[in-house]
Every structure is written in structure tokens, then in C-alpha cells.
Hints:
The chain is mostly helical. It has helices spanning 2-19, 22-32, 35-43, 47-56, 59-66, 71-79, 83-90, 95-102, 107-115, 119-129, 136-139, 153-161, 188-192, 200-203, 217-227, 248-266, 279-305, 308-313, 315-344, 353-383, 386-416, 421-449, and strands at residues 146-147, 172-176, 182-187, 211-212, 231-235, 242-247. The protein has a 3-stranded mixed β-sheet. The protein has a 3-stranded mixed β-sheet with strand order 4-5-6.
Amino acid sequence: xxxxxxxxxxxxxxxxxxxxxxxxxxxxxxxxxxxxxxxxxxxxxxxxxxxxxxxxxxxxxxxxxxxxxxxxxxxxxxxxxxxxxxxxxxxxxxxxxxxxxxxxxxxxxxxxxxxxxxxxxxxxxxxxxxxxxxxxxxxxxxxxxxxxxxxxxxxxxxxxxxxxxxxxxxxxxxxxxxxxxxxxxxxxxxxxxxxxxxxxxxxxxxxxxxxxxxxxxxxxxxxxxxxxxxxxxxxxxxxxxxxxxxxxxxxxxxxxxxxxxxxxxxxxxxxxxxxxxxxxxxxxxxxxxxxxxxxxxxxxxxxxxxxxxxxxxxxxxxxxxxxxxxxxxxxxxxxxxxxxxxxxxxxxxxxxxxxxxxxxxxxxxxxxxxxxxxxxxxxxxxxxxxxxxxxxxxxxxxxxxxxxxxxxxxxxxxxxxxxxxxxxxxxxxxxxxxxxxxxxxxxxxxxxxx
Length: 450
């Protein structure tokens, strides 16, 4: 279990720091541990310890460790490096990973790093920087092996032998014209069993999955999942010119990042939130959503205030009031999460929204009837007041129906107007279920009790 191993190493490092045994830590960070484990160790350490650990890593190992760090932490370290060190560490990065990090550095530094590269490497990175990091163009790697269609299999083998290593995740050779137009792919499995005298044109595959450079990273991940791909070529949509390829390891990163984004957005946190980020940075990030939540809380409180006279006369209402809001909030969150997931998977559109809404309304009604009966029975036993029991039952059904409607339609509406449903949906939903819960419960009580 890598996580448990990281915790064990973290404990060892913490004890060594407390005792001043830096030699042992230096040994762990510079050879005893793989670069991936060193990166996890840095990410699992508070800022002060993280800085000390980074200073103990030898310059020759910095680049290798940096490529495994999360983008937020990696950029923090790179911003404190001089240009010479940045140039040195950049040699360890794949072109796509380097482009992602350079986008967060000052323009002057980026120019100096690019100027230090060979013409070929600089052209590759500049091509990647021209695309959004959330697109296929920003996700792709320009390190590809291309061949012409008119050469023989024997010549392909000779060409491959001249490479000391093949790019990672190479499962296909890409067949291109002299103008780099993508013509087909040649799977290595097919190459190995083909007649050495056959030409590439004879054995290449002309039906294959290709990705436009402007395609979103989310769509790329869905395509890889649907087609069980290991890699896929990326082209310029207009000219069909080969630009690079995307490999499964990059897609796994996209899937993980999207999962983290959804989880953190539900709590109003940035998707690059560092578990051990500094106090002030964390405070600023969270303060915004606490402020938004405060506004929504005042709205709910205002609704309650409208029924102050009712609450003064029937104290039981104040005790029971949170139940209605809570039931609506939970029911709405279940629907909201399901719909956001469906949107992310491109499963929800104009053709099936009505069916989904009807389904959720029926589910909300059935659950409302079930739990309204339970709540009413408990209320009648508790307060010996059958009217209040009927009122809270009715309010529960009303709020669960509103929760189903809001949970279904809200994320679809937010997506349509360009707002991330995962980020704003839960805040709006909570406000709606609180307000409707209080309004229905206290409104019915005012009508039938006062």
C-alpha cells in the first residue's frame, strides 16, 4: 500500500528532523526512495517541513521529483528557482508536462527557458502552449514516431532499431504524408507478424480513432474509456495535420483531476487545493464561500422571521422546523449529485431531461409519503398534537418535491449558462430547500394553527 508506505516514511522523516539527523533524510530523498515516493512525501508535509525537505534534495534529482508533484506545489518550488536551475530541471519533463507548468510562471522566465532549448524541443513546447491545458492540444505529447506509407516493413524495423528507446505507451506507429497529414496507424502487434517485404500502405489501418486538438480534456477521457484506447493521435481539425498523441497515463490524470474537482467544488474549494497550504492562503480561499453561505443563511432566517408571531405561539414549531429543511437538503443533494455525474458523462440532454424530471418527482413523492408518515407519527407521539403532525407531513412532501425539481433542473441550467454545477449547485440547492422547507412548514402552521 503506497499510502501506508508514505505515512511510514513521513514518520521517519519527522522523527529525524526533530532529532537533527539530516543525513538519514538526505539519503532517503536522494536515492533510497523512488522519485514518486519523494513527491508524495513532500505533498504530505506541512509547509515548513516541506521547504526543509526540498532543500535536502540534490539539484540533479529536483527535475525528476518535480514531474511527480501536483501542479500547485510544483509551481511553488519553480517560482523560487533561478533561470539556470529551471533550465536544468526542465530537461526531465515531457513536453506536455513542462508546458502545463510554464503556463503558471512569469512570461520573462518562460522565454528564457524556451530560449535554452533545442529548436525541435522549443517548437514542441510552443505548440503545446498555444492550446488550453484543458484541451486535447494541451494534453497531447509531441514525442511521436512517424513513418511514410511507401516504405517496407524491413525498413521500419531498421528505423526502430536506431532508437535507443521508444516513447512511453507506444502501441502504434503513425503513418503520415510528406506534409505530415495523418494517413493511418500501424499497430506494433501487426508490424511484428507482417512480411518484411510488405509496404506500410499494405498493412496500415485506415479506420482508427483520431482526436481534434480543440476537443476538451473531459471528452478525450470519455473517448478513451469508450474505445479502450492506450493512445490516440491528435490532429489539426482543418488540415488533418498530425500534431501529437495522447496516452492513457495523461487521461488517467484527467479523470483523477475531474474527480477531485467535483469533490472539492461541492465544498466550495479550488481543485488545486493543497492539504497543507499556508494558513492565510487557505483562509482567503474558504472565506469567499463562507460569505456566500452567510448570505443564503440570512435569506433563510428572513423567511423564518416572517412567521415570528406563529413561532411565539407554538413553540413546538421551532423544535421541528429543522427536520423539514434537512430532509429536503438530503433528498436534493442526492438528485444533484446524480445529475452532475450524468452531465459529466454526457448522458443528459434535451431528449431525456423530461423523463429524468418525471422520474425524480415520482421518487420524491413516494419518499415524501413514506417519511412524512414516519415523521407525522413521531410528532404526534412527541407533542400529542395531530394538527402539527399533519402540517409537518405536508411540508415534508412539498419540500421533497421541490428538492427533486431543483436537483434535476438546476445543474442543467447552470451548465447551459456556463457556470460549473459542481461549484455553485450545492449552495443554491441548500438555499432553495431551506427556504421552501421553512416557508411550507411555517406557512401551513400559520394557516391551520393560528
